Sequence to fold (226 residues):
Amino acid sequence: NAGVTQTPKFQVLKTGQSMTLQCAQDMNHEYMSWYRQDPGMGLRLIHYSVGAGITDQGEVPNGYNVSRSTTEDFPLRLLSAAPSQTSVYFCASSFLTSGPGGELFFGEGSRLTVL
Amino acid sequence: SQELEQSPQSLIVQEGKNLTINCTSSKTLYGLYWYKQKYGEGLIFLMMLQKGGEEKSHEKITAKLDEKKQQSSLHITASQPSHAGIYLCGADPSNTGKLIFGQGTTLQVKP
Fold:
């Protein structure tokens, strides 16, 4: 059972380049989300989705786009990378009930550096 | 300001000592997660609390959600170097699926 798979694990970009961080889960979870982690800031929610075709903004959505065409996949797109987007990105998923539905499963993280 | 506030932000304790980390919300919590993260690694699920007054334990770590469901505490008994890391609380204060986390508490345990 693969759980939550993120790719790539490491990426270096130049300012202005675009890229997509991939996230896939094989647990049939309705809920998926993207976080970024910066020193002293904990995890900050970028975007989340409660099901295929449904996405919503989190705490820090600017500069990022998402889509959810299938239950399994939730890619995060950076259209024009900026140095402020240098961070470690985590994808997470869980079952959804009213409120948190159980353990939130995290991917291993993707470390992005924007020069 | 953060919707979830953790305190303290960092903590250094001597091995064997007890410690407590707090997570406070200005809104009623409909469930709260505790996670641990070792430096540079992924997140490890510790426990989830859903009911006011609920208390759960895992090895030497105990977490409680207070009756008013606006604060949770994580208590470590007889700390060990293996407890070192970043502890994060997470919740959905608006009950909309927007799961957010506190800023984390960094714990160092000195042998």
Summary: DSSP finds no helices and eleven strands in chain B. The CA atoms of residues 34 and 47 of chain B lie 6 Å apart. The first strand of chain B starts at residue 4 and ends at 7. The interface with chain A takes residues 6, 9, 30-33, 35, 42-43, 45, 48, 50, 88, 90-92, 95, 97-104 of chain B (CB under 8 Å).
